[in-house]
Amino acid sequence: MTDGYKDRYNSNIYDDLPSIPFPWYSDVIPYIDPTMTDEDKCGMEPQEDGSLNIGEKMSDDDWMDRKFPLPLPVFIITNKQGIQWLVLKSHQSCDQVITKLNRELFLFVDSIFIKEEDIHAFNSWAKDKNFHGGWMPESHGAYEFLWNEYTWSDRYKRTKCYEYEKRPHGCPCDIIISNKGQLQENYDGLRNADNFLSTAYAPNEGLMNKLDLYTAERGVVRKKKTDEVVSMNFCKKGFNGIAIRKDILDHYLQDEKLVLIYYISGEKFLHDGHYQPRSTRYDLSGCFFYNGNDIKPIQSMYIAEDSYQKLKRWKEEESEKDEFPFEW
After folding, report:
1. Phi first, then psi: what are they for 61, rounded to 5°?
2. pLDDT in tens, the chain (328 residues)
3. CA angle, 214 as apex, 79 and 38 as ends, to 5°?
4. CB atoms within 10 A of CB 61
5. For residues 14-30, b (16+ Cβ closer than 10 Å) or e, as one string?
6. E strand or H helix at 44
7. Which long-range contacts (CB under 8 A, 24 or more apart) does 90-95 make?
8. Residue-wise burial string across 107-146, b where 16 or more C-beta atoms lie within 10 A, e elsewhere
9. Kind and range of the H or E element at 38?
């Protein structure tokens, strides 16, 4: 900075500048992570199948029958060493041609923590909710920081101004999203680009700090003192997400007096291979909780709405708007 500039404006601009201009203080976000290598890929493959019930021995009409049982998401997975892991976020999908049409079924699983004392109030509120539509808070891939900058860097801390709603849509208690995602763009130069974790997830900041964890290899979270793997992103055909060691999360839930809540949204329909629908489209919903012992339903998986019901509802809502075009 020139002396002429300082004299002209006579400002205390130095008060706003860091003593050492580290690159993470810049407003320019780098989209290339120099620590990435060709070895960065999804490392854990669950032993569980994770495939969804596609009804191979029945007709399309029978498979689309509302009475046909809906599959449960996989909440607990096992690695090759026989260690159990609790899923924090996942996507399960199946798209198969059994007759002339494609059968499409997918489930998104997200999770939150609530206090033990709030479980009854939450159950009463959640039991009749339709969780389809993405209206509950969830973790998306944030690009404003790099994977290894979570949770300590100033650049990550600046993203915390975009906090989610603690009590969405009349929820009677505070919720805590269980995980945080980091989106890495511009990874196409890697030889393993097809198997690269473009979005990697880690446990939320509170859990990371309480258990003294750090983000190690991409998609892997370890203990600082022992380097023991505590959380890991996983992938298998039609099944991917993030999981955490069950024994470690059990202790955390007990110490913090928290309950793990799962809410699920999904869809089921027939299409022609180009995603032109050839049937009604079912919106799926469900909600479960884990208290350290079992996973129990708050709301079993069910068809919350189909495309015909949705169209009828939209028309009724638009009709009501037309009746009252002005707000007084």
Report:
1. -65, -40
2. 445 444 444 555 555 566 776 666 666 655 667 667 666 665 677 888 777 767 777 888 988 999 999 999 999 999 888 999 999 999 998 888 877 888 889 999 999 999 999 999 999 999 999 999 889 998 888 888 889 999 998 888 887 766 678 898 899 999 999 999 998 877 766 666 656 688 999 999 999 999 999 999 889 999 999 999 999 999 888 889 999 999 999 999 999 999 999 999 999 999 887 778 788 889 999 999 998 888 999 999 999 988 777 777 777 777 766 655 555 4
3. 65
4. 11
5. eeeeeeeeeebeeeeee
6. none
7. 90/239, 90/240, 90/241, 90/242, 91/239, 91/240, 91/241, 92/50, 92/51, 92/52, 92/238, 92/239, 93/52, 93/238, 93/239, 94/51, 94/52, 94/54, 94/238
8. bbbbbbbbbeebbeebbebbeebebbeeebbbbeeeeebb
9. none
**Between β-strands 179-183 and 141-142, what pairing exists: parallel, antiparallel or unpaired?**
parallel
Q: Which residues pair with 107 in a beta bridge?
A: 92, 266
Hey, what's the torsion of the CAs at 129, 134, 138, 144, to 10 degrees? Answer: -160
Entry pTM: 0.83
Q: How far apart are CA 211 and CA 201, in angstroms?
A: 16
Write the Ramachandran bin of 161: left for phi over 0, alpha for psi from -120 to 50, otherwise beta.
alpha
- Cβ proximity of 225 and 212 under 8 Å: yes
